[in-house]
Amino acid sequence: MAHPVRPETERLVAAAADALEGGDPEAALARAEEALARDPRCVPALQHRAEALFALGRTDEAIEAYGQALSAGRDDVEVLLGAADLLVNRLSDDERDRADLERGLEIARRARKLARKEGEDALSGEAAWLEGAALDQLGRPEEALPALDAAVK
């Protein structure tokens, strides 16, 4: 069962999302942190905080923040996909190491499994693509191809 979110917290989460979409990560971070002050386990606020930190170039903090979001939203496919995407695609080569790719692969596989279970084909495809990308970057193209093929089906 999802964690209930109060209306004021929902408003702050929506404002954080709007600020991220509008290219204002400082405002997004402020709204996400306000929401978390009211509800420290609010999964969308945790995810928006992670995304805002990354947009501000605070990569290590963003990775840590995604860890918090994953702890609170263990079965949240959107959080899983966001964390996997960060680790697999969005970190620069000098920021990412093999452990990040392995972790991203593990998270993408979990997201794919949950998305399939929930009947979310588009999210399952996105997770499969992330899985394939991680495998390819890990030098395992023979394993990447089936995942990438599943992503387009």
Textual characterization of the structure:
This protein is mainly alpha-helical and 153 residues long. The chain has eight helices and no strands. The longest helix has 20 residues, at 98-117. The protein is globular. The mean pLDDT is 95.
Compact summary:
By secondary structure, the protein is mainly α.
SSE topology sketch:
Elements: H1 7-21, H2 25-38, H3 43-55, H4 59-72, H5 77-90, H6 98-117, H7 121-137, H8 141-151
Helix pairs in contact: 1-2, 1-3, 2-3, 3-4, 4-5, 5-6, 5-7, 6-7, 7-8
Number of helices: 8
DSSP strand tally: 0
Strand content: under 5%
**Helix and strand run:** HHHHHHHH
Separation of the first and last Cα atoms: 30 Å
Structural class given helices, strands, pairing?
Answer: mainly alpha
Oligomer: single chain
- Helical residue percent? over 70%
**Judging from the principal axes of the Cα atoms, what is the shape?**
globular
Q: Taking all residues together, what is the mean pLDDT? A: 95
Largest sheet features? none
What is the CA-atom radius of gyration, in angstroms?
A: 16 Å
Give the uncertain stretches in residue-range form: none
Keywords:
153 residues; mainly alpha; 8 helices; 77% helix; 0% strand
